């Protein structure tokens, strides 16, 4: 069955404390995947910008640049950060745009774990 995109409104209202109709589990899982990506991406972007002095544009191009900078590294842990960021971004795109997602609960669990790994690895750099 196709996702009812108006469920995001119910989730937004719930998050804003204006609960009208409880959001569905699917809306929560999709949002969790999306937010996990942005948590990892912003931590990685800020690390590159603030600790390594890279100039990261404030455009959509930043998503590719951040993962590329990590993936082009000679260090295994940095390459892994870049690869995991790419996987998270692809799953975020699915959550934000696809009408149907197979195995959404499993995909969300994996996305949250990958996000945690990225943030942990960034802390070790």
Number of domains: 1
Helix and strand run:
HHHHH
Mean pLDDT: 95
Continuous helix count:
5
Say what oligomer this is: single chain
Largest sheet: none
Q: What structural category do the secondary elements indicate?
A: mainly alpha
Please explain how this structure is put together.
There is one protein chain. With 125 residues, the chain is mainly alpha-helical. The protein has one domain. Helices cover 72% and strands 0% of the residues. The protein contains five helices and no strands. The protein has helices at residues 7-15, 25-51, 61-71, 76-97, 104-124. The N and C termini lie far apart (43 Å). The mean pLDDT is 95.
């Amino acid at each position: 069955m196709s996702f009812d995109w108006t469920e995001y409104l119910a989730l937004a209202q719930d998050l804003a404390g204006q609960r009208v109709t409880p959001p569905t589990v699917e809306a929560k899982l999709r949002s969790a995947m999306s937010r996990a990506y942005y948590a990892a991406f912003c931590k990685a972007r800020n690390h590159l910008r603030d600790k390594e002095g890279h100039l990261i544009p404030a455009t959509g191009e930043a998503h590719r640049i951040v993962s590329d900078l990590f993936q082009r590294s000679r260090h295994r842990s940095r390459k892994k950060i870049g690869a995991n960021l790419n996987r998270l971004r692809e799953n975020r795109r699915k959550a934000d745009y696809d009408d149907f997602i197979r195995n959404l609960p499993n995909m969300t669990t994996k996305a949250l774990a990958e996000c945690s790994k990225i943030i942990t690895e960034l802390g070790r750099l």
